[in-house]
Amino acid sequence: MWAERGRTLPGHHDPEWIRLAAPQVKRGQFSVPRDLPGDGR
């Protein structure tokens, strides 16, 4: 009955959850900030 209504079932593939849980930031999208000597960080 749940599957017929399009609801997720434990232990079954859920494409919507995979899409929502996927990382939004791609590798290399942001650079690592450099700490300047003596700036207190």
* SSE string: H
Question: Could you describe the largest sheet, including whether it forms a barrel?
Answer: none
Number of helices: 1
Distance between the termini: 57 Å
What is the overall silhouette?
rod-shaped
Q: SS-based structural class?
A: mainly alpha
Q: Ranges with pLDDT <50 over ≥5 residues?
A: none
Q: Assign a percent range to the helix content.
A: 10-25%
Overall mean confidence score, pLDDT: 77
Q: Tell me the β content.
A: under 5%
**What is the β-strand count?**
0
Measured on Cα atoms, how large is the radius of gyration?
21 Å
Give a structural overview.
By secondary structure, the chain is mostly helical. It has one helix at residues 15-21. The longest helix is centred in the middle third of the chain and has 7 residues, at 15-21. It is rod-shaped. The protein starts with 14 loop residues before the first helix and ends in a 20-residue tail after the last helix. The mean pLDDT is 77.
